[in-house]
Amino acid sequence: MKRKKGFYEKFIKRPQDIILSLTALILLSPILIIVAILVRTKLGSPVLFTQDRPGLNEKIFKMYKFRTMTDERDENGELLPDSVRLTKFGKMLRSTSLDELPELFNIIRGDMSIVGPRPLLVQYLELYNDHQKRRHEVRPGLSGHAQVNGRNAISWEDKFRLDIEYVDNISFVGDWKIILLTIKKVFIREGINSDTSVTMEHFRGSTLEC
After folding, report:
1. Angle at 157 (CA atoms; ends 155, 163), nearest 5 degrees
2. CB–CB of 113/145 below 8 Å?
3. Which helix or strand (DSSP H or E) is residue 41 part of?
4. Which of 94, 109, 18 shows the shortest CA–CA distance to 63?
5. Residue at 194 is within a domain
6. 139 lies in a domain?
7. How far apart are CA 86 and CA 25, in angstroms?
8. pTM of the complete model beyond 0.85
9. What would the pLDDT profile of 86-117 be if each residue is shown by its tens digit?
10. What are the transmembrane regions (predicted)?
């Protein structure tokens, strides 16, 4: 059964995304320029990291981020582990969420929303159960319900549960609560890494049906 959209999601959410993203790009343009220069100086080119991610209805789009890792390789030409390639500067970008700022362009393009389930890796699509796939019924977000309730520090099961909870309860008040909590969590740098990795461990499928 097709999910029913409320008035806010139908008529307000997308225009709000465009207005907020454009405003943020204008206000944060000096920071974007400075970060771009620092990334080019410290990590080299390209400044932006692009990666295919699934969006609304599992449509693939290219997501933009500031680069946070080097391209260091071993003697066989294979990339070194993330923990080696992630520099102190890269860690700072991630902990402050400055690496996420180029996603504002994805929001303006219509690939993403300010608030929604975070866009994950394309290879996860075949691993989702039917319940988890519902996260793609809406545009992915710059931040989301899972991000303000643990981000990378919570399990995949909890993350998906929060994603679907958001999909089923989209509202103006709910989105603004997430936006304000996101700003707060960026300042206190909470939940950036999981307990055992510099990024979230790869999703390997779920044994749960819902």
Report:
1. 105
2. no
3. helix 13-42
4. 109
5. no
6. yes
7. 26
8. yes
9. 889 999 998 888 999 999 999 999 999 999 99
10. 20-39
